[in-house]
Amino acid sequence: MQTGLIFAVVLVFQLSCRGGWILCMTDETIIMPRIIREVSIQRCVAECLGLVDQKKLCNFSQVSGGVLGDKCPENEFFNAAPSKKVLCSYSVWSLNALPFHETPIIKVCDFVLYIDLLRFNPGNSTISIAESEYQQLKSTLQYARVAGIKNILEIGGWGSALLFSKVGSNESIRDNFGAQLKGLLSDYSFDGVFIKWLYPNCPENTDCGIYKLDDKVGVKNMMKDLYQILKPSRKLLFYFANLNSAFLTFSAGDIYSPIADFVDYFVMDSFGQAGRWSMSIDVPTNLKKLISFDFFKNKIKNNKDVVQKILILLNVGCLTFELKTPNAHKIGSGFVQKSNLPPLTSFADVCEAVRKNNFTVVKDITTQHYAYRDKVWYAFDDYQSLLEKARFLKSIDGAGFGLFNTDMDDAKNRCGCGKMPFLRMIGELLKGGECELDRCP
Q1: Are 175 and 225 in contact (CB under 8 A)?
Q2: Cβ 220 vs Cβ 175: under 8 Å
Q3: Regions of the chain where pLDDT drops below 70
Q4: Are the C-beta atoms of residues 100 and 75 closer than 8 Å to each other?
Q5: CA-based, 20 to 30 A from 358: which of 184, 204, 316, 374?
Q6: Among 272, 279, 282, 353, which Cα is nearest to 315's?
Q7: CA–CA dist 299, 321 (Å, integer)
Q8: Which N-terminal residues, if any, form the signal peptide (predicted)?
Q9: CATH number corresponding to 85-431
C-alpha cells in the first residue's frame, strides 16, 4: 500500500510538471529509510517545479505543499513533526470569550485542558463538576469533539498535595476516587484527566510547599489504580508532578519510571526554573537549561519509555519582573520579590508595550529573548526561539508541547500578527501549515 501511494504521488508530478515526464525518482527511493525517502520525494517535487538551485532546497509546507514566501524563514529547511502532540490549557472563564471557530485551536491543539472545572472536596475526598461553568461550556466542548480535539479535565494543584496523599495512601479511598472520576468523565463526555499532584520530596533547604515524604508510593498506587479503572473506557491519563521547577523535581530522584506503564503523558515544566522562588532573573525558558536534558535522562531509569511520553510545558504568557536596579537587565540580575507588577503579562500587552513605550529588545535563542525599560522586564518567545525549542523537542524524541496560559495569546490580533500568533507558530513548527506568519514582536 505504501509503495503504491509513493508511486502514485511521483507519477502525478511526472505527468503534470510543465507538461513533461520529469524522472527524478528511482526505484531505490521506495526502499530508503522513511526520513531519507521523505526528503528525496520533497526534493524531487521541488526540482520538478523548478524551485531548486545549486545551493539550497526551496522551502515549502509539508502539509499544504505551498511554497514558503517572504514571511517564512529563508534558507531554512525544517521538517514538520505532525505526530507530535500539543496540549492547550485554558481557564474556564477565558473560553467563554474565545470561540474555537475564531482561533487556530482546532488546527493545532490535540488536547484542550480545562482548568477550574473539576472540584475536589477536602472533607470527604469527593469530586464534582462545577455545573454552571460546564453548562456555559457545552457548545465549546461539543465543537472540540467534532473537530477531533480531546477534552481533558484538570484536577489538583498546589493546595491539593495533602488531599492526594490521603487518596494515595488508602485503598478504599482510591477505589472510591477512581469510580467517581470514571463516572464524571463518562457522564460529561471528557476524554481524560490531568492529575496535578505537586509533590515529591524537596531538596534540602528548599521550600516546595506541602508534601509528604512517603507520597512516592501513594503516587504509584493511585496512578496504577486509575489506569486500571480508566483503561477499559480508553480515557487518557496525564501526570504533572513539578514543583517550582522540573530541576527540583528530578533532583529528588526518578519519580516517573515507576508509573510509566500507567500514564499516557508526563507534563514537564520548562519555564518555572526560578520564578518567584529565586532572588535573580534565572530566565524561565532558558534553553541552556532545557538542553541539559541529559540531567533528567540520568535520573530516569526507563529513559525511552518516559521521554517519549513527555510534553514540555511552554508559557504563552510573558513572565514579568520588576528589576531592583533600573536597566540592570542581564540574566541573573536581581528583581523585586514583592512587586506590584503581575507575574505574567499577555503576549499582546507585551507587544504593544515594546512598540509604543521604547522598550529595548534583546534576542538570544541560546538563553532567552527579553525586553526591558527602566525597571520593567519581560521574557518572550518569537519564531526563532520556538524553532530552537521545537528542534530540541525532536532531538530528544519527546511527545510534544504543553502550552500553559494559552488564553494569554493575542486572540484579537492587537499586535497585527494574526490571531493567536504563539499558537500558530507552534502549529507551523510541529504540524506544518500555510506559513503566513507575520513576525512578532
Answers
A1: yes
A2: no
A3: 1-82, 93-103, 122, 158-159, 198-214, 242-253, 270-299, 301-302, 432-441
A4: no
A5: 316
A6: 272
A7: 32
A8: 1-19
A9: 3.20.20.80
Cβ atoms of 411 and 98 closer than 8 Å = yes
Measured distance between the N- and C-terminal CA atoms of the chain, rounded to whole angstroms: 46
Which residue type occupies 187? D
Distances (CA, A) of 425 to 65, 243, 373: 17, 28, 26
Q: Which residues pair with 236 in a beta bridge?
A: 192
pLDDT of residue 283: 47
Instruction: Convert the pLDDT of each residue in 274-317 to its tens digit.
Output: 433 333 344 444 444 544 556 666 667 657 788 899 898 888 88
Summarised one tens digit per residue, pLDDT across range 38-77 is: 555 665 565 555 554 444 444 444 433 444 444 444 333 4
Give me the residue label for grid cell 492529575: 195
- Beta-carbon count within 10 A of 251 CB: 16
- Rounded to 5°, the CA angle 260-296-270 comes to 95
Alpha-carbon torsion (421, 425, 426, 427), positive or negative: positive
User: Closest by alpha carbon to 270, among 401, 399, 381?
Assistant: 401
Q: Radius of gyration over alpha carbons of the chain, in Å?
A: 24
* Cis peptide bond N-terminal to 200, omega within 30: yes
Q: Which residues contact 213 (CB under 8 A, 6 or more apart)?
A: 201
**What is the pTM assigned to this prediction?**
0.76
* Widest CA span in the chain: 76
Distances (CA, A) of 393 to 162, 241, 364, 388, 426: 33, 20, 18, 9, 12
**How far is residue 137's CA from residue 94's CA, in Å, rounded to a whole number?**
10
- Please choose, from the candidates 272, 270, 262, 271, the residue with its C-alpha nearest in 3D space to the C-alpha of residue 309: 262
Where are the chain's structural domains?
A: 2-48, 85-431
3-class secondary-structure state, position 111: strand
Short-list 82, 383, 87, CA closest to 239? 87
In this predicted structure, what is the pLDDT of residue 359?
92
Sheet holding 369-373, edge to edge: 344-345, 318-322, 376-380, 369-373, 360-362
